[in-house]
Structure formats: structure tokens, C-alpha cells
From TrEMBL:
Lineage, broadest ranks: Bacteria, Bacillati, Bacillota, Bacilli, Bacillales
Protein known as: Metallo-beta-lactamase domain-containing protein
Superkingdom per UniProt: Bacteria
Stored InterPro entries: Metallo-B-lactamas, RibonucZ/Hydroxyglut_hydro, Sec-metab_biosynth-thioest
Domain Metallo-beta-lactamase per the UniProt entry, residue ranges: 41-258
Length: 344
């Protein structure tokens, strides 16, 4: 795969890596699908191997997304009938909603992490529990009633843009993928607890989903535990662990869920980790003078955030508070239902 090109440069032997294949590695076709979300379009990928054609992710369930998907699929030289299976990087609606319509055209096996299941099947008990759980989180985080109401309205919109399908196979770290023997499944919980990335070692290709995005820092989205009674997953702590894990992979090109390809994954991971350290310091400074609820911190830190984004900004803050609490840097004080945090 590699073409090593030796050239003499100013009398010295320099080693140049020809990365001309990097933006078009073997068998990978990128389709860019519009979404109604602030993040912009989502990238989904067709990976054509000798034994299989796999679709990684689908767009949200909108007419625009469907039109873009079918047109770009054809332009890449494929039809829906060529696809053998669908694999999800994670369960977010912009990555799976369109499956409802795709599976009506062809009954395809869908593979994803077990944690994606209650989301993509839209399990009624799980969603009832999810609402109850978030109502409690909003109260303890100091979210006012109006804002909480709006957040629940956003959850409903997201459900409409998502799919209601069943999973045919659960993928975990190391699970072999049918027809894709060169690929490894790597669990990367954080942005979503169901998040997986897919690595092809022979040419250093990574299908990174939303774990790595070049232009924006992915949110560690807060999720309730899958089962009542379990501890809530600490999204930012897990996200950082997953970033550090991916530093071990030798990646030439990471194909992301949003935006351009990433060719220097190591540098991007270093940057993300240090941006998080900076944000943590900033939050600590805010809490130095007065104890604050997570909602108060989110309003101070993101004064211009859209009201639609309350649950995302709150997720971000709670992620940081989890991390600081685990390091013993802050303590929480209960004040009726709310919890205010201060530096320890
Ligand atoms: Zn996502």
C-alpha cells in the first residue's frame, strides 16, 4: 500500500511518504448527507471489500437526507441492492434515522454495539425511564422548568428523526465483522456510550464516526444508565480514555462522521485533551468565588448557546464536574433538590 519515495534534498537523503492514496483509500466511498442539526452534514461511508459491501451509518430521517443518500450512492457506482449490511458507529439520529426507509427497500442486517439497542429500537420502557431520569437530572442541575420543557421537546424531535429497527448482530471490541476480515472493531465510549470505531491496520484507515472530528470537539453526551439502578456512565471521563486508546493506533487517514478527513490523528488527540484541560481550569475559576449549579455554570460558559442546545451544554458541564469530582477537586452541596458545586 505504501509507496516510499526516496529523494535527495539539499544533499540529504529525505524520506517522503506518498500519501496520495490517503484521501481515497481502497474501497471507501464517502457520502455527505444534510442534517437539520447545527453540526451540519453527516458523512456516511460505503466500504466495498471483495466479499461484502457495507454501509457505515445513515443520515437522519428527512426527505433531503434520503435524496442526497440515494443520489450519491448511485454516483459512487452502487445501488441499495448492492449493500450487504449496515454497521453503526453509534446510535445518534443523524447516523441511523434513515435506516427506517432504507430497510423498507432492502431487508439488511444491522450491526452495532449492544448499548445502541434501546435507542435504535426505540424501546418504550427505556424511553420512559430516560425521561424520568432526565427530569431528575434537570432538577438537581438547577434547570428552570421552561428550559427543561424545551429540552424534552428537543428529545421528541430527535426521536422523530431517528429509526425504529432491530439489531441483527451486536459488535464489541474484537468481534469479527462478516466479510471484512481486515477490519477491527474498537470500542470508544464517550460521545455516545455505544460508540465504535473501525480500524484497518494494513493501510492505517480508521472509520472514526463522531469520536474524532477535525473542526469541532465532540460533546460527551450524557446518557442514563441502560438499566435502572446502575451508575450513570461518566461520559467525559470515558471519552478521554477512548481518545488515549486511539493514540495507540497507527492511523494514516481517519474518516470522520462530520467534516474532512484527519491525517494527523495524534496531533488532533493531543489538542482535544489539552483543550479539555483548559476548559476544566476555566470551570474551576468560575466556581472559586461561589458555589454553582451545573446549569448556572453552563449559562456562564456558553452565554450564546441556543436554547435548543440546553441538554448538550449541560452534558458538557456535567461531564467536566464528573471528571473534577473523580480527581477530588470539587464538592457538591445539596440545597433542597439542587446541587451546587464548589472547589474543594
Ligand atoms: Zn453523534
Amino acid at each position: 500500500m505504501y509507496e516510499w519515495l526516496f529523494i535527495h534534498l539539499k544533499g540529504e537523503l529525505a524520506l517522503i511518504v506518498d500519501t496520495s492514496f490517503a484521501t481515497d483509500p481502497e474501497g471507501i466511498h464517502k457520502l455527505t448527507i444534510p442534517t437539520p442539526f447545527p453540526v451540519g452534514p453527516v458523512n456516511v461511508y460505503i466500504v466495498a471489500e471483495d466479499d461484502s459491501v457495507t454501509l457505515f451509518d445513515a443520515g437522519p430521517k428527512t426527505e433531503d437526507a434520503w435524496d442526497a443518500f440515494t443520489q450519491q450512492l448511485n454516483r459512487a457506482g452502487f445501488s441499495i441492492h448492492d449493500i450487504d449490511q449496515v454497521i453503526l458507529t453509534h446510535h445518534h439520529p443523524d447516523h441511523c434515522g434513515l435506516l427506517d426507509w432504507l430497510l423498507e427497500k432492502k431487508n439488511l442486517p444491522v450491526l452495532a454495539h449492544p448499548s445502541a439497542e434501546p435507542w435504535v429500537t426505540q424501546d418504550a420502557d427505556f424511553f420512559a425511564w430516560y425521561h424520568q431520569y432526565f427530569a431528575r437530572i434537570f432538577r438537581t442541575a438547577g434547570v428552570d422548568e421552561e428550559s427543561a420543557k424545551r429540552a424534552f421537546e428537543v428529545f421528541e424531535v430527535l426521536r422523530h428523526l431517528s429509526c425504529r429497527i432491530s439489531l441483527n448482530q451486536k459488535l464489541r471490541e474484537g468481534t469479527p465483522i462478516p466479510g471484512m476480515q481486515d477490519w477491527q472493531v474498537v470500542e470508544t465510549p464517550g460521545h455516545a456510550q455505544s460508540h465504535l470505531v473501525f480500524y484497518r491496520e494494513k493501510d492505517g484507515v480508521l472509520l472514526a464516526g463522531d469520536h474524532l472530528i477535525k473542526e469541532v470537539s465532540p460533546n460527551p453526551v450524557m446518557e442514563p444508565p441502560i438499566r435502572s439502578g446502575e451508575e450513570r456512565p461518566k461520559a467525559l471521563i470515558r471519552y478521554r480514555e477512548s481518545l488515549i486508546k486511539c493514540k495507540q493506533l497507527k492511523v494514516n487517514t481517519a474518516f470522520s462522521g462530520h467534516g474532512e478527513e484527519i491525517t494527523d490523528v495524534q496531533a488532533l488527540i493531543r489538542r482535544r485533551l489539552s483543550e479539555q484541560e483548559e476548559r476544566r481550569q476555566k470551570i474551576k475559576t468560575l466556581m472559586r468565588d461561589q458555589p454553582l449549579t451545573p446549569f448556572e455554570i453552563s449559562q456562564l460558559l456558553f452565554p450564546y448557546a441556543q436554547k435548543m442546545e440546553i441538554s448538550l451544554t449541560l452534558s458538557e458541564i456535567i461531564g467536566f464536574l464528573d471528571w473534577m469530582e473523580a480527581c477530588g477537586e470539587i464538592t457538591g452541596e445539596r440545597e433542597e433538590e439542587k446541587i451546587r458545586y464548589r472547589t474543594a
